[in-house]
Amino acid sequence: MLLSAYPELPGGVILCIDNDQSILECERAFLECFGYTVLTASSGRRGLELASIHSVDVVILDYFMLTTNGRHVAIELRRLSPQAPIILLTERLGVPDQTLNLVDALVVTDRLASQLLPTIAHLRGCAKIPQPSYDA
To answer: φ and ψ at 19, to 5 degrees?
Structure first.
């Protein structure tokens, strides 16, 4: 897809960090339909490596991961990419305030499809939400 043919698409690079590979693949496919370049990491450590070598526009971070939690990764992301907004994904509410204070938005996993794009658009200051492109 040529972004110039779709001026309403904001584009940009999104880093998704989640230990669940199926969620990462769903996020990638979904966001790529809207013109985003998506980097995926199946661990906090790998996500931090990617954030240290790529300029990212938004980070989508799972709170509950196997070897760490989103709080530790968010602290390091703020150091590596202070300009990149962080969206914290969680399966349930009850994320500690000290973690919520490190991120820019919270999206509950079962509302991912309906809340993710509006949240990204809001954080990036986009006037409207992009429409998907189904070009091969």
So the answer is: -80, -10
